[in-house]
Amino acid sequence: MAEREIDPRDLRRAFGAFATGVTIITTSDAKGAPWGFTANSFTSVSLDPPLALVCLAKTAGSFSVFEKTERFAINILSEQQRDASVAFASWGADKFSAVNWGVKATGSPVLDGVVAWLDCATHELVDAGDHIVLIGRVVDYDYNAEPPLGYCRGAYVSFGLSQEVLKASEQEGKVLVGAIVEHKGAILVDQDPKSGAIRLPSAAKLGEPSDPKGLFGRLAAEGVSVRLPFVFAVYDRDDTHCIYYRGQVMEIAKEMENRFASHCFIDFDELPWERIDEPAVRMMLERYIQEREADQFGVYVGDSQKGDVRHLK
Question: Whole-model pTM?
Answer without folding.
Answer: 0.65
